[in-house]
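Next comes a single protein record:
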Amino acid sequence: MPTRRRQFLKSGLAGTAAALVAGCTTGTTEEETTTTDSGGDTTTTTSGGDPDGDSDEQIRIGFIHPLSGGYSTLGEPQELGGQLAVEQLNANGGIDGKEVVGFHEDSAGDATTAQQKARLLINDRDVDVLTGEAQSSAALAIQQVADEEGIVFGNQAGADPITKSRCNRYTFRYELRTGQVARATAPWAVENLGTKIWFHVADYAYGNAFLDGWKEVLSDYDYEEVNTTKSDLGANDFSSYITQIQNSDADFLALGMAGGDLVKFNQQASSYNLRDAVDIVAGTNDFRSVRLGGGSGVVGTYSGVRYFEGYDNELNRQFVTSFIDAYDQIPANHAESQWTMVHEILAPAIEAAGSTNADDLIAELEGMEFDSPMGGGTMRACDHQAERPVPVAQISEPQDLEVLQGKGTEIPSLDIKQTISGADAIEACDSIDCSL
């Protein structure tokens, strides 16, 4: 089984500390406007090196993020995580001695736009790998392009099909898929909060994957489905759903939403005092943007945890310190997942392969062991999904943790209740609908 080169990675964090503390970067960041095949203008942000340099002497990474629209709260920190990884890699000699250049594009969280940007990066920017995307429908669209073009895509969205029914040999995911979070969170919820459940989800890829994942996991449990409701993606008024839930006999609400939709739902639920009637368990209330947007109103709710900035291990402390020093803000979930995919997974795999050829890179990634700010894991060969531990937490009052450099007072924290092992949080390979 291939293993990651731990010393290579840890030196990348330590080697850039002085530059980041001083507020410096280790490469260039600039924008270039070009015209797409469809006639519209697009702005490419580059980081880490010379975008006009010799592509044979560089490792060129194509990033796609939802930098505008309802998912920009996830896409903006995702871009920063990618930029930080590129800068740190270059500060330590690049990858396999080659300069790393990042090309960043905005998908706007739209599937068609995401595909256009993926093709632009491949054909016009000559990128070696693709990575990014926080919106699941857009990520599914990008992975189709990756399959057609034969280029590795390190994805960061959550919908199950990406590494299940829609899996392909070019797509790999460090981010937890929705079903992994469900396998950790759903049993804990029915054992601790009650067995009468109201499901509410946003009606798109992630929301429906959340619903399917919970119901699949709970098929082995004795529970009552009080009701299932769905709202349109991008909806603004959830009052009718909230009052229905409030007047039901549900023990808790299982909430499958993300991005701006979830922030708005949490704000309205707080104004209606929904938690006086039911507990709330959301798939992504752990996100920094959701905790900030919900403020005190989200305190007391529950969530599976993809990332927690206060997680107590050496690599996370180093990552959080570097991120705050570089950007003067606490890293969000998608900043960590993007950083980890580039700095802890793709970079050492490219170095070990000595190549960005897709076949060589896939051979290194399949079965690869890696480290991350949330602990170690394995990139499974059978579905290209990271197997890693999944905590369950209650959103708590802010904590002024030392690692947060005084910024802990700005954001509700997490009180981790239980951590499910990576193996227990994911289905066995022979039981999933993925054929690579």
The longest helix spans residues 333-353.
